[in-house]
Design brief:
single chain; mainly alpha; 15 helices; 80% helix
Length: 384
Amino acid sequence: MKKYIEIASASTKLGLTSFGGPAAHLAYFREEYVQKRKWLDEKLYADIVAICQFLPGPASSQVGIAIGILRGGIIGGVISFLGFTLPSIILLVLFSAFLISTNSFDSGWLQGLKIVAVAIVAHALLGMQKTLAPDRIRISVAIACAILTLLIPSIAGQFSILIAAGLFGFIYFRSDENEPAPNIRLPFGKTTSIIAWILFFGLLIFLPLLKPFINSTYYLIFDIYYRVGSLVFGGGHVVLPMLQREVALSPDVFLAGYGAAQAVPGPLFTLASFLGHATAGIPGALIATFAIFLPSFLMVIGILPFWSAIRSKKGVQNALKGVNAGVVGILLAALYDPVFTSSVKESSDFIIVLITFTVLFVFKWAPYKVVLVSAVLGYLFQLI
């Protein structure tokens, strides 16, 4: 019971303070789970991040689910997911209503919440570079991947870049000694994993086939959001255009929901909660949220039992050295676009970046304190 309470406490704190999108979320997770609580080391954390980068769906949520499973089994994964996601679901419905009614999308404190992501991601990159790109070769791989990510700003491009980094690592590091694979202890085995994969593909295939025979708004919502959660690569920013094609709501509703999702902490995929509520009230919000995150849960359960066996292979280890360096490069590119370009518009914005990075990196303030400072500074600069 104690470990479940610890998981709930840690994940809920992250759910209430993790502003800034997936790149910032990974930084918050590293700070909380690796550095503070020491539930896992840097290498295992890097492995989990690498796994989730290759899966469709919300990578940061998948990392949180995986850490919860490692700490407390499937129940721990559920608690970790709820702790990280439930605050944003509740805040999103309430906050979006407030923003729409008061037209507060350009508030100074809201701008401060966007700016703090720059400091959070920059701080995380410095820490991840020491572990994942510790030598000149891997730093060069990271820089090359960052450049290519900026030149090819597409999901297919990002996926191809990680594959190329893995191929480079496979070839370049082939003479390195084999490292022991991170020990992943799970309370379930490959049978549970196989069942999870059967459920994942079964729902993906049969939900659309049965749709003509089931006249239900709730079934339609489940089908749409499950399919989107199963097929979206690239995180929450990619969800908007896909859902716009699938859900019959006005552009104004979509933009209002997207703006609110950007403002609240937690995963951007909780945009589904807003849209589900706009479509069919509270039941619609619950079904849409459950459906869009269910594929991530099934995929994480499906892949973890096989990962240690895959990871122990020397060729896989060599490839992961390249992939991990590539992840650093992709996060470096994300630091510029969209994190920096979407938040830093004026000199006052960059001043907030300098202040928040200093208190985070030099004075070692907790991330949630830095978030509050950034919001206050954003509000004060708007008054000047």
